[in-house]
Amino acid sequence: MLRPALVLTAALLAAAPVAAQNRLMIGQTVSGELTSSDPRLSDQTHYDCYAVETTPGRRVQVDMSSDAFDSYLMVGGRACTALTDAEQDDDGGGGLSSRIVHMGTGQTLYILANSVGAGATGAYQLRAWSSAGNPSVTRLNVGQTANGTLTSSDMTLPDNSHYDCFSVQTRAGQTLQIDQTSSDFDSYLSVGAGSCEQLSALARDDDSGGGLNARIVHEGDGGVLFIQANSVSAGQTGAYQLRVSQAQSQATIVVPQNRPALPQVESQSPSNSGCTSRAVEGNRPPTASLQATPLNIGASANRTVTVATTAADPDGDELSYSYTYSGGRMSGEGPNGGVWNLSGVQPGTYEVSVFVQDGKGCWASPSISVRIED
Predict the structure, then answer these.
(1) How far apart are CA 45 and CA 18, in angstroms?
(2) Labelling 368: which of 160, 291, 303, 341 has CA 20 to 30 A away?
(3) Longest dimension (CA), the chain
(4) With contact defined as beta carbons under 8 Å apart, do 244 and 140 qualify?
(5) How far is CA 236 from the centre of its chain?
(6) What would the pLDDT profile of 156-209 be if each residue is shown by its tens digit?
């Protein structure tokens, strides 16, 4: 169900009660609940208020989901009771889930966790991601064409070229052809396993599609193939088309000399890190990486994953660890993590994250994905 966008003014807020403000950290997932005693907007929908610190030039992705009601998100500046430059979303996260991607300015971002229907109550989950480590993924089907645009706010690779992230489910023995075309920039494609942000690259291409167009022909293995729709040069933006189709033969892919292959990471995920505005002066964030073994689990295999975190603090501060995961159950805590049991879950991609804090306002939050095969 869609709700018309609200014009957020002070008149929209019910007189009482005043919203309590909850602090949300990048990489953190909170479990909240809308209740009949929560503050209301003028359309009689309840909301909870959160605040997250942003970093200039880094996108923040805010996701809200609920099994109890149709979620609705609003974000903006100044305060929850008087949002400025407000952004709103109903179903951008798929189904009845909400998603907003916001370009950080270094200012506090205020979040209203809300519902579409008046008076709706129930449990929900809210998470703020750093897009530098968790870009949104657009799922494509074989035979589908996507019209996209690279913008200055998109994710960047280490060479400062922008990219968008796509995925396609492959079948073992199926040969796919991936084409990227653009009249605005020189296209560049990378495909691989793992995730877009930590791509274990299987092939890269610049001009095999003719002219400045990229093409990769790939034989599927039954897993999810991740696609980086990218440009050859740093900072290039503009419109493009990406198509995934069934092909008949393999092709030889050559990485051009003017674009060296980028580093690959297969089983370890480095972290996003930062400090809040209330961090102790001079304090530095910890570093952390998350290891998971194995990353791909077959249909009949033992569905357990060993998870561990390697972390260090440059100031010698004592660190705390908090794990979140999108399916199954986890045993163990602290840097050793433990065993992530995915028995009984449906085939698909599942993510585990760890939130490492130094107790003085700084943090690190790596995450990694594991694929359960059909």
Answers:
(1) 14
(2) 160
(3) 67
(4) yes
(5) 22
(6) 766 668 888 898 888 888 888 999 999 999 999 988 887 776 677 788 888 888
